[in-house]
Amino acid sequence: MKKIFILMFLALPLMASAQTKVKETAVPRSVLLTLEKTYDSYKVKTWYQAPGQFIAELVIDGQNGRAYFTASGDWQYSAFPVKMDECPVMMTSYFNDNYLGYRVKSLDYIEEMSGDNYYRMTITKKGISDKDFEMVFDTRGKLMKSNAPDPDAVKREYYTQNNPDLKDENITSATKTERSRLRGRPAPKVDEPQVEQFTPCEAAVANFEKAIGKKRCKSGPTWVNRNGEYAVAYYTDKQKVDKEAVYDINTGDAVMSGKLLPKERYSNGIMKYLAEKFNGEKYKVEKMVVYEYNSKFRGPDGKKPKPYTYVVVSQKVKGVKEPKFIRMEFDSKGTYTGLLAQPLDERDVQ
Questions:
Q1: DSSP secondary-structure letter at 263?
Q2: What torsion, rounded to 10 degrees, do the Cα atoms 271, 272, 274, 279 define?
Q3: Cis peptide bond upstream of 307, omega within 30
Q4: Starting from the edge strand earliest in sequence, which strands make up the sheet with 308-315, in order?
Q5: Chain centre to alpha carbon of residue 105
Q6: What does the DSSP 8-state code read for residue 5?
C-alpha cells in the first residue's frame, strides 16, 4: 500500500449517494489507468458509478476497501474498514474514556490523493439514534478533527441518566467542596458506607486449601468477587511471588491460576508490540499477569483453553493528576487479542 505520510485533513465524503453497480466496460479508460498507477497489486470485485464519480470495490494486500475516482479519472481517496483492535491505543482509549453510551458505527483507514492518511470514526448513541458524528485521528491515534459532542457533556448526561437521584444541587455542592479544598480549607467529611467483605462458597475455600493452603502460601488469601463470575483468591507464595487462584463462583471448581511477572520476565514479544503501538509515547507497564487454565477445566468446545497474558499500561494525561490505564490481553504467543474497558476486579489497578 502507499507509504504513510503526515496527516493533513481534507473533508471528503466516504460514501457516495445513488451508487449503481456497473460493468468494467462502462468504466472510463482514464479511471482504469489511474487505478493501475495508484496501486501495484489489486483485485477489483465490483465497480459502482455515482454522480461524477466511479468507485472500485477492491482487495489490496488481502484487505477489502473502496477506491474513489472522479469521472475524468483523478483518484480522490481510498477507504479501508478496520477493527478497533487494529487502531492505535491512543485512539481507542479516547473513545472508550469519553463517549460512554455511544457505539462505533463505522471505522475506516483513509488514504488520500495528497498522500495524507488518517482514521475516520463514525459514532452514534446506543439505542435509537438518527444522528451520526465523525472523528478524525492521525496515524498515531491523535484526535485531529471532530463534530462529536463535548466529552464532558457526554459524561454528565451519561451519569445523570444512570443515576436519576443525582440532582444539579448535588453536583454544585460537590464543586464547591472541591473549590474549598483547593483554597486550603478542609472539606467536610463524608460518611462512606462499609463494603461487606466477599465470602466465597465452601467448595472454593476447600479447593484452595487442598491445592495451595498454608504449605505454599506465605500470606493471604484475600478473596474477591470478579464480576459475579469468579471467586478469586489473591495470595503470595513462599517464594514471595504474587499469585491468583480463580474458581467458579457457584461451584467452587478451579478455573485458572494467575502469576504476576517481575519486570525482568516480561514477554519480549509483548514489550515489542507495546513499543510499536505507542510509537514513541511515554507509557509504563503497571502489571503483567500470565493466566493458565486448570488441567481439568474445559471450554465450551470441550477443549482446555490456552494460557494468555493480561497487561495493564498507564499513561500520564496532561492536566490530569491521575494516569490513564489501558488494559490489554495477549494470547500464548504474545499476539494482541483485545482491549478491556474496565478493571478485572477491585484488586486490579484502579
A1: G
A2: 140
A3: no
A4: 217-226, 230-237, 242-248, 254-260, 284-293, 308-315, 324-330, 336-340
A5: 15
A6: B
Compute the distance between CA of residue 246 and CA of residue 232 in angstroms, rounded to an integer: 5
Residue 149, C-alpha cell as written in the block: 459532542
Tell me which CATH code domain 202-340 carries: 3.10.450
pLDDT averages per 10-residue partition of the chain, 350 residues: 35 55 93 90 91 91 89 91 88 89 90 84 80 90 90 83 57 45 50 65 94 88 91 92 94 94 93 88 92 90 90 81 85 87 84
Task: Tell me the β-bridge partners of 18.
Answer: none
CA 234, CA 343: separation in Å to the nearest integer?
15
pLDDT at 13: 45
| pLDDT at residue number 8 | 34
Q: Residue 34 is which amino acid? A: T
* Number of Cβ atoms within 10 Å of the Cβ of 260: 16
Residue from 337, 277, 281, 350 nearest 310 by CA:
337
The three cell numbers of residue 106 are 463505522
- Residue 19 CA to chain centroid, in angstroms? 33
CA atoms within 13 A on the CB side of 81: 10
* Beta carbons of 291 and 258 less than 8 angstroms apart: yes
